[in-house]
Amino acid sequence: MKNAVWLVLIMATLLAHPVASMALVDPRGIIPQTAPRLTDRSAPCDAAPARQLTLADLVDLALCRNPATAVAWASVRGAAANTGIARAAELPTVSVSVGPTLTRTDSFRTQSVVVAPGQTVGLSSNSTDFGSSANLALSYLLFDFGGRAARIDAARANQRAALATYADTAQTIALNTVTAYNSLQANRASVTAADASVRFARSSFDTAAARQLAGVATPADRLQAETALAQAQLTLQQAEGAARTAAGTLAVTVGMPPTTVLDLAQVQPLASADRLSRDVETLIADAEKLRPDLASSRAGLDAAQASARAARSDTRPSVGLNASNGLNYANSVNDRNSASVGVSVSIPLFNGWDRTYRRAAAQAEVDRNIGLVEQTRQQAGLDVFTNATALDTAIRVLATARVLINSATASADIAQGRFKAGVGTFTDLLNAQSALANARQQLVSADFGVRNAQAQLARSVGEIGAAVDDLRGTVR
Length: 476
Fold this sequence. Notes:
By secondary structure, the chain is of the alpha+beta class. It contains 10 helices and 4 strands. α4 packs antiparallel against α5 (219-253). The radius of gyration is 39 Å and the shape is elongated.
């Protein structure tokens, strides 16, 4: 009998030991180990591609390194674990208690002894026993009007919401990376445009200086040319500073120090907007299917409805099964074993209207989530409409900017040629030179405005991952 007690003790100790229970961390296999990919990643998270980085590569790096994805993924794993907690009610609860026992018994006046006629004395006795005890208990919920199933449904809905939130976080990171990349490339293009303006202004200055030395131009022309050159150089310096800042911003966006020098691949020509140039109503319909924030809000509504069902079940009776077996060892005389089994019905009667208000709160949460789903759906439609309109506008602006750069270039060349030939004024040349510089900057702004508008529309529809994947394999 004593050996049986110690056997139970040893088994309980082994099951509780961390090393022995390592294989039981996720016995149901419901906690995901690998995060889903937003894009068709071409390299593992622990290694950057050994080549010049494309925009798709930068998005992959950002998704791997940004701490926001780690936070969101931990929430997904925690929600999955909570599902396991809720499903624990599907199985019986078994517990074992073991330990030494010290029992002291004192008895008074257990018997009387006559010491004289008419006089008796009560005698007392006592005993001290040291032994061991073990108890095995089992309990199982048989029926509770759907409360157990409702709690499991709520946990699963919360897990879906967490996964959708992770996807939404990943899409936001992807959009931020695309925006930071476009900002850097736009600033670099502005540097190139400003440098071209400096070279044109220097050529005009050299022409004005030469004409002054030849006595066919006034000192005012030379001073105006010098001012225009200094202004062009100032614009170039400002563009170079903005480009350095944008490079640091992009490095931080992909999880690197701002001083990191990223070796970027050549910017690809602007892709066609045909893939996203569908009818706005079609885009809105796609957004209602694809946007993760909508999926998260719908899952939140499912969780609230399940919680409301669970709250209603708490006001009703529940039926449970209980069984136990106890073993006590004190000495060879008092060893004993006791067992019991039974079915119990628990009927809630009154607890200060706690359950009543819990039902009311749960229903209010359902109503709130219904409103949130509709609010999110309407906002999604507005986002798609706004960004589709912005993309259409950006495409038309780019077409105009291309016409403008062609006309401004031709006008500046003619003005410079006329001034060199002595048949045009320097004022005409300065005006044409300024118009060309503005046209160059407007073309840069329009080009990357379309790129950003495409990314914003893809994000509002929920297709940013597919848009990034479209950029793979196009490096030249």
